[in-house]
Structures are given as C-alpha cells and as structure tokens.
Write a structure and sequence with these properties.
Blueprint (H helix, E strand, L loop, with lengths): L18 H13 L8 H13 L3 E2 L1 H14 L16 H12 E2 L9 E5 L6 H15 L6 E6 L2 H16 L2 H6 E4 L4 E4 L4 E7 L12 E5 L8 H8 L8 E6 L8 H13 L8 E5 L27 H11 L3 H10 L8 E3 L3 H6 L13 E7 L7 E10 L5 E12 H5 L5 H9 L4 E3 L6 H14 L1 E7 L5 H11 L4 E3 L4 H16 L3 E2 L4 H9 L1 E4 L5 E3 L9 H18 L12
Parallel strand pairs: 3-9, 3-10, 4-7, 4-8, 8-9, 12-16, 14-15, 14-18, 16-17
Antiparallel strand pairs: 1-2, 5-6, 6-7, 11-19, 12-13, 13-14, 19-20
Helix pairs in contact: 1-2, 1-4, 2-4, 3-4, 3-5, 5-6, 10-11, 15-16, 17-19
C-alpha cells in the first residue's frame, strides 16, 4: 500500500487542461443516473474514477450529502417548483467530489471549492442546498453557516432559496426557525445558525464559520469580507468554504486573483490539496459565436437553460461591442478586459451621408455640450430626430468643434491634419491658450434661432459660466445636467451601437468625428454598465461624448409619459 508521504498527488478534475477528464466523470455519472433513487449507483461509478485519479473516497460521506440534497431540498422557482432537487451529473460530480474525498486519516480532503460557470446555470440553488446540508445534515453542533454577497440584495437571494427549501420539507420545518427581517435560519436541534451577510453592511470580524458560501465573487470590490470569513475558520476541524462565481470584468481584484490561483491548481502548477477547483468556460482561443462551444461554459444548456436563450444573446452581441463584452463574460464565462475598443468603424463609415443644414432649418433637435478644460476640444452636437416609414426614429447629427491655437501648435504630427480640418471648417481655431466661450455661446444661440431646441444636455464640469448664460437666454427648463457616470452614459452608449448597426443615424461624414470614434474605448463595470473612457481612449473623444449626451436627452424625452385627459361619455 502506498504511504501517505509517498502517495502521488491526485489530479484535479476540471477545466481546459482537464476537460476530457471532467467529461469522462460526467459520462460515468450520466450512465448510472436513470433509476438511481438513492445515489448509490452514481456514487460507485464516480468513486472508481476518483480513485483512479489518485483520491481516497469515503462513499458514505459523499452519499450523505447527495441524499440530503435529493431528499430534503426542493426547487423553489419556475416550472420545477416543488419538485425534488435531483442533481444533474455535473452537479453530482461537484457535490460528491467535495464531500466524499478524504485524506489518509479519514478527514474530508477538500475544505474549499472554487466553482465558475456561466449565468443561469443554477449557482445560487446549488450553494443554498449545500449550505442547508452544512447546517442540518453534517450533524455539527453549534454550526455557524454564512452566505456572503457584495450587496444586501444578492445576499437576500441565497437566504430566500434556503428558506423556501426549508418550508417545503416536513423534516426541516420541524428542526428550523427562520426570521425574514434578519435573514437567519436556526437549527433548533443542534443549536446551529445560518445568516446572510453582505459586504455593504456591518459584519462580525469575530465570527467562527463552519461553512461559508460566497456567491458572485466577482462583484466583491475588496477581499475584506472574504478574508475575515476565511481566517475565522481556523478552529473548525473540517471547514467548508465555497466561492461560486461567473467571470468578472477586468483582470484585477480579488476574484481574478482567486481565479488565477484555481486555474494554476487545475493545471498542476500550484499544490493546494484542500482546494477543489472546477471551471466551466469557453477557451479564449475558441470562436465564441460557434454553438458547439457554448456548453463548455453552460453545463445546463439544453436542460433547464434554453439553447435559444443563449443563441439570442450571442446573435445580438455579434453586432454590438458592449454586448459582446457582457455575453462573453456572463454567458461564456470568459474573463474579458474591462475596457474594449468600442465603435464599429465600418458601421460608422456607412452612416456618413451628406447633411444639408439649410434643409434642417426649423427642425427640432437635442443638444450635447462638452466644455474643454484648456488644451481639449470644446464640442457642441445637434441631433435631429426623424421618423422613418417603418415608424422608427432615425437621427441626423451635426457638430461644432473648437480648439485653442496653442493646443494646435503642440499637436506635433497631428497638426497638418488638424490644419486641414480647420481649413474645411470642421474645427474652429480660437486664438490663445483656451477656447473663447463667448464664441461658443454665440454659436449655440444662433443654432437655437435657426433650429428648434428640445433639450440640451451638458456636463457641469467646467461649464458653470456658459450654462448660467444659456439658461438666461434659453430658459433653465431646456437644459439638463448629464454627467459622465455609468448611470447617464450606459443607455445612450447602447442606443448608439443599435443606431449604427441598424443604419438609423447619419453622422454626416465628419472626419474629426470619425477620428474620435476610432479613438473611443468603452469601459464596463461589474454590472455591465458601460461608458466611454477618456482616460483609456487613445486620443480625444469629446465629439462622441456630446453625441451621447444628446442621445441621453432624446431617450429621456421619449420616455416621458404623455399627459392626457379623459372625457366622460366618450369611447
């Protein structure tokens, strides 16, 4: 018999480097799934495979977890509501491997689980069922079980699933008490307690968790809560710590660090015997639009996750850069960069028809105004809406751009191009170090006399003086502060992508704006809200920003409810 000191290190079971191995494990379980009411046939098949990978297996330990979940837990949502939580093969492999593998002394081998999978594959449900097992099924007295999330809302989701599972089972109902206001479930027989925690609320640094489930790890802005809960388990003999997530936005932060560690363990580059790491993702080198690869990130695809749901999301993303970022991250579980080169220049070029200002005289428009600090462009965008034959809104855009003469001189290799644009009257050069705001104000006032201003969006940064003057002339009800945050920029960013892809905007062939569109980089946060990033863009994007500000007002204007009157006695 191989001794504990010389026994070879077991091979990890799941990700790109071991995908065939994981597939074989799933196949073993799948073949034994039919008619296996107590899990014994599946456990024997999987145990044999795990032993061949170098693991010691305590089948009774693994079966105890499987039987608790499949007998005590029921689904809490949708068409499966009230039906037993019968584990799919990929769920069975995950749960059984974690709880069944033991060390040379018969103690549970895995203390920690890192599990990554695409959106809508039932992450919260599997965490909830496992935490209920840790609270009621392990038989530990004084258990402290926690679910942890970045926000109160996310934390409450795990609690609700656990509570509803308890409510549906007669045995658990007798042993449990729960308090919705505090999001607590108590095991009255063994004195254990589950509590929901969130990073945006106070939590106890002195806790001593027996089991923890951290859902959507990528949403955590710091590792404070993660570290407090991890370090608090030091006195527990066989702690449980689950990190469950979809890929995050950007390759920095705590979630990325944990992902990299898990990937290194899977690849055999790092020895961490107490970590079970399973990552379902589409490899970066794969064609993410190919339906054949989608299941690599979505083990539930074709089961409770509809193929057409993923297909619809991918088709949309193929024509929308910011949607591509979201779909590759959430649906295909790829750790994509937080920023991406944004606008499709081919679509932008197709949008560049001739614009006759004389024909627009008297037409309504939305405005966007961005005032420069010193060496930047000052930009003023006029966006004219028009309804096409299909009843859809189309837009025509005009820009006025100003640049200080000093900035032009300092532009080096760009100077000849800027000179040419100025000669063609795409840019107005202002003498000195800064743009003459009186010139800008006068142009805006002339435009508002020539055309009909509906609403003007501005960024109050550097704009206080001119905005006060414009309010005097145009009326303050015509002006709206449009900040540069995700809140203000997300909707117009996505609307601009749609307009370009559908050919519903005419940018007039303005070469300065094409240059700015080519410079633009979109930045996405963890909620997949997007905005243009001046910092990360390769050069100036001021004109694009003013277009987004005008679109912001157009969207807000269209969404305002119409005020109507009802006349009694009429149909």
């Amino acid at each position: 018999m191989t001794s504990a000191s010389t026994r070879r290190r077991p091979r990890q079971i799941g990700e790109a480097a071991t995908r065939d191995r994981l597939a074989r494990l799933l196949d073993k379980v799948q073949k034994k799934a039919n008619g296996d009411r107590d899990g014994s046939a599946r456990s024997k098949a999987l145990s044999g495979s795990l032993r061949r990978l170098g693991y010691r297996v305590d089948e009774e330990r693994g079966l105890r977890a499987i039987r608790f979940i499949e007998r005590r837990c029921r689904h809490t949502k949708g068409r499966y509501y009230g039906t037993p939580f019968l584990l799919r093969p990929w769920q069975f492999v995950l749960v059984y491997s974690f709880f069944a593998c033991v060390d040379a002394f018969g103690k549970r081998l895995f203390y920690r689980l890192w599990f990554e999978v695409g959106k809508k594959n039932g992450k919260t449900e599997i965490v909830a069922a496992c935490l209920l097992y840790c609270l009621f099924g392990l038989g530990e007295r004084g258990a402290e079980v926690y679910s942890a999330a970045a926000s109160r809302e996310q934390a409450g989701m795990t609690y609700k699933v656990m509570r509803d599972m308890v409510k549906q089972d007669a045995v658990l109902r007798k042993r449990a008490k729960y308090w919705d206001s505090k999001k607590i479930i108590a095991n009255t027989t063994l004195g254990g307690e589950y509590q929901s925690l969130s990073a945006d609320a106070n939590y106890n640094d002195g806790c001593n968790p027996s089991a923890v489930g951290v859902d959507e790890v990528h949403r955590h802005k710091s590792r404070d809560m993660w570290d407090v809960l991890r370090q608090g388990q030091g006195t527990r003999e066989e702690p449980v710590f689950f990190g469950i997530t979809t890929a995050g936005s950007g390759r920095t932060g705590m979630a990325w660090e944990e992902h990299e560690h898990a990937a290194a363990v899977i690849a055999g580059l790092v020895d961490d015997k107490h970590l079970l790491a399973v990552i379902y993702s589409v490899p970066e080198e794969a064609d993410w639009t190919d339906p054949k690869v989608w299941a690599l990130a979505n083990p539930a695809l074709g089961d409770f996750l509809r193929v057409d749901d993923v297909e619809e999301a991918v088709l949309k993303a193929m024509h929308t850069p910011t949607e591509e970022h979201s779909v590759r991250r959430l649906r295909l579980n790829q750790w994509v960069a937080a920023e991406t080169k944004w606008l499709d220049l081919n679509a932008w070029d197709r949008s560049g028809g001739l614009v006759d200002e004389l024909k627009l005289k008297g037409e309504s428009f939305y405005g966007g105004l961005d005032i420069s600090h010193s060496q930047d462009f000052t930009a003023w965008c006029l966006l004219f809406p028009n309804e096409n034959e299909a009843g859809e809104t189309e837009y025509t855009a005009l820009w006025r751009l100003w640049l200080p003469e000093d900035a032009l001189v300092k532009r080096g290799v760009m100077k000849p191009t800027l000179d040419a644009w100025a000669a063609d009257r795409y840019i107005t050069i202002c003498p000195g170090e800064v743009v003459d705001l009186r010139m800008v104000e006068q142009q805006i006032e002339r435009d508002c006399e020539t055309f009909n201003l509906l609403e003007l969006g501005y960024d109050r940064f550097h704009a206080h003086g001119i905005i006060s003057e414009l309010m005097e002339v145009l009326g303050d009800e015509k002006l709206a502060d449009v900040g540069q945050s995700y809140k203000f920029m997300n909707a117009p960013c996505k609307e601009l992508e749609r307009l370009l892809s559908q050919g519903r905007i005419n940018t007039g062939g303005n070469p300065v704006l094409r240059w700015m569109a080519a410079n633009a980089v979109a930045d996405a946060n963890q909620d997949d809200l997007v905005r243009p990033s001046r910092k990360k863009s390769s050069d100036k994007i001021d004109g694009v920003v003013t277009l987004l500000m005008a679109l912001n007002r157009a969207i807000a204007y269209e969404e305002e409810p119409e005020v109507g009157f009802y006349s009694f006695g009429t149909e």
